[in-house]
Amino acid sequence: VTVANAILQGVFLGAFYAVLACGLSIMFGVMRIINLAHGDLAVLGAYITFVIVDRLGLSPFVAFLIALPVMVALGYVLHLTILERSLRSGILTPLLATFGLSIVIQNLLLIIFSPDVHSLGRSAGSLTTASWQVASGLSVSALGILVLVVAVLVFGALQVFLSRTPLGWRMRATAEDPEAAEMVGINSRGTYAWATALAVAIAALGGLFLGIRSVFDPVSGPTQLIFAFEAVVIGGMGSLWGTLLGGIALGVAQTLGAQVNPEFAVISGHLLFLVVLIARFGGGRMVLRVAR
Amino acid sequence: VRVARWTRTSRLFTGGTVVVAVLLASVPLVFEPDVVQKLTTLLILVLLAAMWNALAGYGGLLSVGQQAFIGIGAYGTVFFADNGVTPYLAMVLATVVAGVISVPISLFALRLRAAQFAIGMWVIAEVISILVRLDQNLGAGTGISLTQLNQYVPNFRQAYTFWLALAFAIVFIAALFFLLRSPLGTSLQAIRDDEDAARSLGVHVAARKRLLFVLAGFGCGAAGVLIVANTLFIEPGSVFSVQWSAYMIFMVLVGGLGTFEGPILGAIILFAILQTTVSQGGPWYLVGLGFIAALFALLLPRGLWGTIEARLGLRLLPVGYRVVESKSAEPA
Question: What tens digit of pLDDT does each residue of B213-271 get?
């Protein structure tokens, strides 16, 4: 039963990772770049939500809805100022530029908010503490259910958005072949900017959950980035639903590892990630390898 | 038209570096220990910048996880010293261990490209960091001192460490210099300029990258060894910190990615910045570092040295070739 409970908690944790990873997956899928500041943008979203909660005394969920347009605008501008230029100059430049951005965001947060940890948990009210005993040793928390439901809704909404709306079609077309998309009249620059805006907005949602689930500080971003990237890779890069499954696999790996020894939680997630990398790329190479 | 490697300036300068090395070697005899300690830090930065540039500038491998090797070097030194090896011998052994470990890691990591390699290396560094934290004999999360170095008189210890740092810096930078000048190096520079084109011309790209990766493993391990020798105390939180990667990226981007001299210039610039602003505290300088690194990546991808090189045609430590137009051009 304890193992079953660990798996259940892992699914809830993994749904959170999937939300964090979703934006990263969109950006990789559409633009073929990994934004190394993704985790810091999620933490930035958490801080903006925190400020609104703090000043206006609102519930974090309402505050998040106010923070959302800010994050969308931020993502749009981020593309036009930094990413667009970096896309034009080789595969390393986006990584270098976003790594620099990551350092800037972390230290600006450090200057503004001090290194103290913050949390949105208290202001979220009874939601963070409510839980039900399903069977002996098997408990379900309200927050876990909420994150899981929201994660499924986010991925479902993205599925509908990408397959049913004109902007979604443009994103998929640009992802397939930006030059061909330009030829049929799609503005790839604007499409990329909207994809980044969408990614940053969902990252902020991940930040909201991070803040409600636990605590965050100015340097929480890199850890969130690593977990998000692991979810994307485990699920298969470029695959949207894969990212949801990848996040859940990562969450389950971590809670099962913690079952053996609490200190093994993070490392068992890392090991799953490395194993998936070896399996996938090793397999690919074996097919392609030719005698020299 | 002929093809030449040396110019008069580069001959003079390369000769000059030998003089500089000799002068540097006499530093501990002249200066106070605190100056010697600071210059040791500079040599560590130079070594790190050169190694990161070897990976990213020539191999196209952007690693955010070289702190893995820094940590292996530092903790390896403590491990061997704790097991009764003479401290300075322990340092050489730890460097070798870091280099040897980079071979199996390369088998895995070099299959990855771009972001997968960058974050894959980061995760490897995290895994090693967690393993160290789990080991009580290595001080777990709270850190450990290299007490064995206390057997030396502080002034002598500082001098020995400086000489070791100088030796490591010279050995690894000279190794890179001669590697890049060899026929092998020509293929490395071809990979730098266009990996796919190099492959299509028959360059064995994977083997060349492995060579650079292992060299950087040795070099970053040596830097970790020097860090513990210079500060006498390490903890996993700082020695495995991604901050090291941030420093390396800053030095190489500002100095000049894929240029030989640039990273050395970048290291001197970072050293100057660290000396002036860190003492005042505050994370503003890190905001500046991140901002400048991003700016260089976007606007000046070949850094300060790359720009100087392109404008003035200046080559101080020549690793490439240049076309010299002969003065008496033959009539067509």
Answer: 999 999 999 999 999 998 888 888 889 988 899 899 999 999 988 888 889 999 999 99
Q: Find out whether A276 and A284 touch, Cβ atoms under 8 Å.
A: no
**Contact across the interface for B294 and A222, Cβ inside 8 Å:** no
Q: Which of A25, A78, A96 is the best residue to mutate to test the B interface, defined by the most B CB atoms within 10 Å of its own CB? A: A96
Q: How far is CA A20 from CA A45, A77, A226, in A?
A: 12, 20, 10
What are residue A65's phi and psi, to 5 degrees? -65, -30
DSSP-H helix ranges across chain B:
8-25, 27-30, 33-53, 59, 67-82, 87-109, 114-133, 154-181, 183-193, 195-200, 205-231, 236-239, 243-255, 262-277, 284-299, 303-312
Q: How far is A229 from chain B (nearest CA, A)?
A: 8
The shortest C-alpha distance from A19 to chain B (Å) reads: 19
3-state class (DSSP) for residue A193: helix
**Cα dihedral sign, A96-A99-A101-A104:** negative
Q: How far, in Å, CA of A95 to CA of A108, rounded?
A: 20
- Among B72-76, B82-86, B157-161, B280-284, name the most confident range: B72-76
CA distances from A31 to A82, A85, B236 (A): 13, 13, 36
The pLDDT tens digits for A223-280 are: 999 999 999 988 887 788 889 999 999 999 999 999 888 888 899 999 999 888 878 7
CA distance B313 to B11: 14
* Whole-structure pTM value: 0.88
Question: What separation in angstroms does the CA of B320 have from each of A43, A199, B178, B210, B227?
Answer: 45, 43, 11, 21, 32
What interface predicted TM-score (ipTM) does this complex get?
0.86
- For residue B126, the chain A residues in CB contact (below 8 A) are 226, 266, 270
* Under 8 Å between Cβ of A25 and A198: no
Q: Do A263 and B298 touch (CB under 8 A)?
A: no
Q: Which of A28, A91, A92, A273 to mutate to test the interface with B (most CBs of B within 10 A)?
A: A92
Distance CA B278, CA A256 (A): 42
CA angle, B207 then B245 then B219, to 5°:
50
Question: A138 φ, ψ to 5°?
Answer: -120, 105
Interatomic CA distance for residues B185 and B176, integer angstroms: 9
